[in-house]
Amino acid sequence: MALTVEEKMNGAEARARQLTAEKHFFDQAQPFFPLGFSIGYRNPGHWDVYAKQCPGYASAWQAAHPEGSTSATDGDRERAFRIRGVPGDVVVYDERWNPHRPKPSEIRFRSITAAMIWICEELMQEPST
Fold first, then answer.
1. Where are the beta strands (DSSP E) in 25-126?
2. Peptide bond into 34 cis (omega under 30)
3. Do residues 79 and 70 make contact, with C-beta atoms less than 8 angstroms apart?
4. Cβ-Cβ contacts under 8 Å for 28 (sequence gap 6 or more)
5. What is the 8-class DSSP label of residue 55?
6. Best exposed site among 5, 60, 67, 69 by fewest CB in 10 Å?
7. DSSP-assigned beta bridge partners for residue 40
8. What is the pTM for the complete model shown?
9. 1 DSSP β-pair partners
10. What does the radius of gyration of the chain's CA atoms come to, in whole angstroms?
């Protein structure tokens, strides 16, 4: 079933409202420090790193959809990074929620150890009181 022009316009407006709200709430939460993370191992060359999500995603959804409801809450845990590959060709996918960078970025390393050092450098930041 094809959508009408009005339905398409309403959908585009809702997406634009949500993206604008996401950028606003994300920027308001900066600088963000997750203050902890965990690592899960599934099999050789397959690791996942979980951390607290930057606050704002649920608030943005609620601001963009005032008539709706969601069970999401700001600051839920998310898979922040996934590590995939074999020695000599390891890829880290940065999956942290960031509306300014909607697609996961990829960074290549020679080893899982080097990838984890970089991830630790990204996540083990503390606020300067």
1. 37-43, 46-52, 77-86, 89-94, 105-109
2. no
3. no
4. 56
5. T
6. 67
7. 48
8. 0.84
9. none
10. 18
